[in-house]
Amino acid sequence: MATSARKSGRTAASSRRGSAARQREIQQEAEARNERATARKQAAKQAAGKPAGGKAKKQPVQAGPRRQPENPLPKQHQAKPGHEHKLDPQPRFLAPDYEGSGKLRDMVALVTGGDSGIGRAVAVLFAREGADIALVYLSEDRDADTTREYVEREGRRCIAIRGDVKDPRFCEQAVEQTLDALGRIDVLVNNAAFQQHSKTLEDITEEHLQETLQTNIGGYFHMARAALPHMTEGGSIINTGSETALFGSKSLLDYSATKGAIHAFTKSLAANLLERGIRVNAVAPGPVWTPLNPSDQPAKKVADFGKDSDMGRPAQPEEISPAYVFLASPACASYVNGVVLPVMGGPRG
User: Fold this and answer.
1) What is the C-alpha to C-alpha distance for residues 240 and 198, in angstroms, rounded to an integer?
2) Using CA atoms, how far apart are residues 127 and 63, in angstroms rounded to an integer?
3) β partners of residue 134
4) What is the pLDDT averaged over residues 156-161?
5) Domain limits for position 157
6) Is 104 helix (H, G, I), strand (E, B) or coil?
7) pLDDT tens sequence across 110-147
8) In 206-278, at which residue ranges do the beta strands (DSSP E only) sit?
9) Which CATH number characterizes residue 175's domain?
10) Distance of CA 47 to the CA centre of its chain
11) Are 317 and 308 in contact (CB under 8 A)?
12) So which residues are the catalytic ones?
């Protein structure tokens, strides 16, 4: 039995390493194609005598209790899967003006992609509202440790579970570890994601396509299926959708398709689980400053990330996470089911 467990552990570790390496290979291939396409486009503009720019500068909007970072952001790029501790500026996730009031007191939340970005911000606010946290992450150990530290600073328990949501068996093991350590599961937040910009449909290799499909929608199915037998009336599932599911994205064809599937999955599962008293909703963020984009686009484009949104800047994770608290809390959202809540800084994202 011990030999079998060790073999299983080695296989899981190998799978995680393979996923991170596979994502970097997809990234490198896409970047090379995009660089060639960009060079051709710039050469064509120069030949036609067209200016490189031409758009009027949009003034960023500040509407919260403190000013958030604005464009231009420092030019930067990372290898996938990306690390929050390497970002400049550091994403804001603490929401210092948010005061907890026990909305999730003594509940347990399992958050995928919980090491960084939106997942980290959600984990911290859930803890501030009284929940214990199980965070699932692919391979970013340092970021996961930081998230766990901040959850524990809120006075709640936290475990970090390393693995790949593409693997159904891992999802089952993550649920088992959560139950063993924290005793129950009340809220599941499906948030782990993979994206890689591509200029054309022909540029999306089969490996790239499967990585996106199996992470973004397959992982949601696997984790929900594993968690549901242990969830009871009053529980909820919150899926992370995207503005790309509502408006599309010409450079994120596969990612947008999976986010559209997540929105449809949310509404369908909400209807399916209604009689069991388990609510299912989604949040559709606009551009958010997380490791996802600096590990996806060239450094030059990262500097302008989010400037085309209605607010003229990217959101910080702490501006998105309160929406998850609202949807998770029975006191706030007991009659909210099957909705996709846009948090995009405006009607167009």
Assistant:
1) 22
2) 25
3) 110, 159
4) 98
5) 12-36+76-343
6) coil
7) 999 999 999 999 999 999 999 999 999 999 999 999 99
8) 236-240
9) 3.40.50.720
10) 41
11) no
12) 255
Give the mean model confidence (pLDDT) for residues 48-74: 75
Report CA dihedral (141, 143, 147, 150) to the nearest 10 degrees.
110
For the sheet with 108-112, list strands across it: 158-162, 132-137, 108-112, 187-190, 236-240, 279-285, 340-343
User: Residue 345, Cα to own-chain centre: how many angstroms?
Assistant: 17
47 falls within a domain: no
Question: Taking Cα atoms as reference points, which of 203, 250, 242 lies closest to residue 220?
Answer: 242
Give CA torsion, residues 68, 71, 77, 80, to 10 deg: 50
How is residue 310 written in tokens?
């209605």
Structure tokens given for 134: 């199980």
Q: What is the mean pLDDT of residues 209-214?
A: 98
pLDDT digits (tens, 9 = 90+) for 214-228: 999 999 999 999 999
Instruction: Give me the residue label for tokens 């994202």.
Output: 349
284 contacts 243 by C-beta, under 8 angstroms? yes
Domains held by the chain: number: 1
- Does residue 272 lie within any of the structural domains? yes
pLDDT cut 70: percent of the chain above it: 89
Q: Is residue 120 part of a domain?
A: yes
Q: Calculate mean pLDDT across residues 284-304.
A: 87
Burial of 320 (0-12, 13-18, 19+ CB in 10 A): buried
User: Could you report the per-residue pLDDT of 162-177, keeping only the tens digit for each?
Assistant: 999 999 999 999 999 9
Query: Largest Cα–Cα distance in the chain?
Result: 71
Write down how long the chain is: 349
Could you tell me how far CA 344 lies from the centroid of its own chain? 14
User: What are residue 158's DSSP bridge partners?
Assistant: 133
129 within some domain: yes
What is the model's pLDDT at position 314? 93
CA distances from 332 to 67, 130, 283 (A): 27, 15, 15
Query: How would DSSP label each residue in 47-84?
Result: HHT--S--PPPPPP---SSS----SSPPP----TT--G
This prediction has a pTM of 0.84
Angle among Cα 122, 128, 130 to the nearest 5 degrees reads 105
